[in-house]
Amino acid sequence: MPRSATDLKPRILAEARRLLVAEGHGALSTRRIAREVGCTAPSIYLYFANKDALVHALVDEGFQLLRADLEAARASAPGHALEALCKAYADFALANPEFYEVMFHLGPAEMARYPKERYREQRAVLDLIGRAALGAGAVAEHALRTATLIWSSLHGAISLHLAHRIDKSVRGPELLADAVRVAVQAARLEPTLRTE
Amino acid sequence: MPRSATDLKPRILAEARRLLVAEGHGALSTRRIAREVGCTAPSIYLYFANKDALVHALVDEGFQLLRADLEAARASAPGHALEALCKAYADFALANPEFYEVMFHLGPAEMARYPKERYREQRAVLDLIGRAALGAGAVAEHALRTATLIWSSLHGAISLHLAHRIDKSVRGPELLADAVRVAVQAARLEPTLRTE
Amino acid sequence: MPRSATDLKPRILAEARRLLVAEGHGALSTRRIAREVGCTAPSIYLYFANKDALVHALVDEGFQLLRADLEAARASAPGHALEALCKAYADFALANPEFYEVMFHLGPAEMARYPKERYREQRAVLDLIGRAALGAGAVAEHALRTATLIWSSLHGAISLHLAHRIDKSVRGPELLADAVRVAVQAARLEPTLRTE
Amino acid sequence: MPRSATDLKPRILAEARRLLVAEGHGALSTRRIAREVGCTAPSIYLYFANKDALVHALVDEGFQLLRADLEAARASAPGHALEALCKAYADFALANPEFYEVMFHLGPAEMARYPKERYREQRAVLDLIGRAALGAGAVAEHALRTATLIWSSLHGAISLHLAHRIDKSVRGPELLADAVRVAVQAARLEPTLRTE
DNA sequence: CATGAATGAGCGTTCATTCAT
DNA sequence: GATGAATGAACGCTCATTCAT
Questions:
Q1: Which one of A153, A175, A189, A193 would you mutate to disrupt binding with B, by most B Cβ within 10 Å of its Cβ?
Q2: What span, in angstroms and rounded, lies between the C-alpha atoms of A142 and A165?
Q3: Torsion angles phi and psi, residue B63, rounded to 5
Q4: Residue nearest to nucleotide F18 (CA to C1')
Q5: Which member of B145, C34, D138, D194 lies 3.0 to 4.6 Å from C41 by CB, making a disulfide possible if both were Cys?
Q6: Within this chain, do residues B69 and B142 fall inside the same structural domain, yes or no?
Q7: DSSP result, A93-145
Q8: Does the global pTM surpass 0.90?
Q9: Closest approach of chain C CAs to the CA of D1, in angstroms?
Q10: Residue C3's domain is classified under what CATH number?
Q11: What is the pLDDT of residues A48-60, one digit of tens each?
């Protein structure tokens, strides 16, 4: 664990995040990061086995932050766990677009094998939503499915927002709030929907 | 306006489309297109100012395809326009995942300046949804907002599906169907939601 | 087939040969060749698919030269075919150390897959020696084995000579002549040796 | 002079030797040695001026091993010293192919300045062969020359064998045995040959 | 005695692009 | 209208080596 005055590792990660959201996944190169951070490209390999490992570190970091936010939200709003969770999820995405991008937009091709950890973290987030959905009226047998639906509802609004695809006249935050509302309704309505 | 039988432009576009669909945005290179088309890389520059222009042409094509699908769907299901539209949208995304990716996932930096056309097409899609939502109970004043909400609901499920983020036990098509249902409900419930 | 005024291809090959013998296989790099030739590294890829292909081209060229020399030698000395062949082989090695090195010293690890052509050429050389050995008293059933023995005798002296391993007091050309003599004797003595 | 039980120098050499034998000269890197030994790369520089020095140490070791083998062989077969020597030489090469490679195939450029020691050892090997050749009928005045000829005969078969250049139908061990025989004959016949 | 941090040079290779012909 | 030749920039990565601590 290197601990020099300049402490490159976090700076590399930070720059990688910044590049990722500012210029897209295609602009994320070891040389670019190094140049921006002020070190040489090989120095990155002192802290990460390769570029994939760097990206994975970003993903892991993001999931830890997200889970912490979600758990804090659940704890702080015992009555409206689901709403609080959804709100926290959306807030996380807007506050950390870089993390969100790398966590949920990278396809499997860009994201070389390292799946176990990642899916476990992702699944933990989903389970959090699922448990909250039960408290909001969802049917236990469909908990995972309902949670996924809620998640995808939130993700849709966030994803379009982060890609700047939303019309100026529809304000982002409002859309997000709408999406949270739809997500929560989805949990409540889900039994009804199923019988249709 | 093609003149000779061997006019390269459409063949370049066709090959670019094929490569995009078959191997993704990352595999789109001028050299590969040229090789596959049977011309040389510089020839591409006779018809497209640069690679970005080629990609933009592809994106435009994608939007035209999507619009055509949506309009056909609307025409063929006069009673349930919104449902048909949502279904057609989801079908398009699943049938052309790489097209969808390049149309809706590329950030503004990746997608160099060329915004007018793209946003006009995107807006047309949105208006189609909006009009159908009116027929399904949405409030006229909020048509655009409601349409965006419906769109984002669809997009969320599609996006997660395309990024392989959905748990194996939740089957993709089912989630898509759920998302369509939620989207349609969103239009109907929107007045209610608003009053909450 | 590019045919510019500078005609890079042969110059690349020549420089590769030069580098190989002057500084060893480890110094043979595309960038080094390019620098020395006065072009850029990617230009090499206009003429060779990759570095391996370049090396293979060297090998092929070498075998063609060697075969031409051997066949000329055989034709010009009908009576003493074997001696003439051995002499020509040694002369080729001394005159083209770069070729000889890449043809017979590179191990299979350095020499990525492309074996068919190479082994066919090598075998042709061996067959030439074998046929000449028959004329010098070798037993037909052991032609290949005898040819290989003759070949290895020549190769040993050449290899040590090219690696500068021979004591100054033993003059290279003399050793080579001795080796040729031993090789020719090997053909004659081979039946005797076998009965031992 | 090793002092502590963990003295790195011999362990570095041992690992370097292991790597050389197991994966060849190209796989010898300071980092790999260090990783495998459990120290850091810079530690190697405490015991060796640079990588070349390490390789030279290895080469010296190889020559000592070879000499030990040859002397043991001579001692154990008083009657047929030359045959035993040749056999031992071939056995050493086949048992330590990568050692052999680095000892006898590296050109002078690859093998940076350090010639004195190396040539002395090499010469010692040659003298051993020379003395045995005398016992087998060689002429004293030509001892060195005859020894070199014997050596080159052995080396030729070994070199082709190590480079995988020998046809499958000619079995390696047989060729080696043939080469030994030719080498021994060379000593006996040498006076005759010379008069030709 | 040994390390952690960092470097400069280099590797093979691919890319979009230019330009004279 | 199209090409062959060539380029500059960049890519991920490995190397031997240095040096303050």
A1: A153
A2: 32
A3: -65, -35
A4: D42
A5: C34
A6: yes
A7: HHH-HHHHHHHHT--TTTS-S-HHHHHHHHHHHHHHHHHHHHHTT--GGGHHH
A8: no
A9: 32
A10: 1.10.10
A11: 999 999 999 999 9
